[in-house]
């Protein structure tokens, strides 16, 4: 038996339980863990089920079926990275608004302070 | 007619006082707001010393977000007209009347001051000039109207544009991008010739490569903007 599926299965289990553990300890928000969990479940499936691995590999013309696991891993990496880019964009937009509102509020507070004097 | 002059400033301690005096001299009825975009020098203190209100951002947000802060201030305080005015001394207070005309007559929602509208008004470095020419050609084409100085930050906006800017103002290359944004949202632009000073202080280190690179980036940003949904008015 190929060593690659075994290795892939082991790595997958480690990643899967690492993500679960991070969520459990509140170090990772559920909504950001979903893609990771989904990725490891899909890869786990293809690592243990030779039949489906060979079937899908044959379907898209991959000569060496285990490389399908790497392809799927790569696709998920790209998806997760794009997801992160959108999260960062959203964060920086919110951060900008926060700094603007804070500055405008500070101005109001100063003004009220000087009116009292 | 409540009028505001927004002066975004990032480390402009050498010029900020002169700029405030210049605005006060030529537009005495207008209020001034200095947006200190996280300056590390004494820009904010010097402006306050001149009696100008200053809004200080916690850290450097960039010119787009700093400008938008000024428009949010204008909106919250009910100004009818808001001008943008650079803190580096490049813009001239005696040119405000040129911008004011089309706004008061209702002909324009946004009035843009151009250095290149008339020949010989401004001598730009060759590299910068070529960059602006290609950019203005592209923008004129997209807007269906002649725009000669899309990177000019000397402009005035009416109440409707002030409100619009509060909900959407571009971050990366705000001057040219804002024009396209306004055009797509259906606002009317009028460009008028104005005189500007050569940059007095600070270094304008625009090399040919830089000017070209800037132009490419702006055009790319505009193309991406065109893919976006037009924000509602």
Topology:
The complex is a heterodimer of chains A (117) and B (233).
Chain A: H1 3-24, H2 30-48, H3 50-59, H4 67-116
Chain B: E1 3-9, H1 16-26, E2 31-36, H2 43-49, E3 54-56, H3 63-76, E4 81-84, H4 96-104, E5 110-114, H5 126-143, E6 155-158, H6 159-167, H7 174-184, E7 189-193, H8 208-227
Parallel strand pairs in B: 1-2, 1-4, 2-3, 5-7
Antiparallel strand pairs in B: 4-6, 5-6
Summarize the structure.
The complex is a heterodimer of chains A (117) and B (233). Helix content of chain A is 86%, strand content 0%. Chain A is an all-alpha fold and 117 residues long.
Number of strands of chain B: 7
Average pLDDT of chain B, to the nearest integer? 90
One letter per element, helices H and strands E, the order of chain B comes to: EHEHEHEHEHEHHEH
In CATH, the homologous superfamily of chain B goes by the name Spore Coat Polysaccharide Biosynthesis Protein SpsA, Chain A
**pLDDT < 50 runs, ≥5 residues of chain B:** none
Low-confidence stretches of chain A: none
Biggest β-sheet strands, sense, barrel of chain A:
none
Could you characterize the architecture of this molecule?
The complex is a heterodimer of chains A (117) and B (233). Chain A is mainly α and 117 residues long. Helix content of chain A is 86%, strand content 0%. Chain A has helices spanning 3-24, 30-48, 50-59, 67-116. In chain A, α1 packs antiparallel against α2 and α2 (30-48) runs antiparallel to α4 (67-116). Chain A is elongated and about 80 Å long. Chain B has a single domain (3-227), classed as Spore Coat Polysaccharide Biosynthesis Protein SpsA, Chain A (Alpha-Beta Complex). Chain B has eight helices and seven strands. Classes of the chains: A mainly alpha (117), B alpha/beta (233). At the A-B interface, α4 of A face α3 of B.
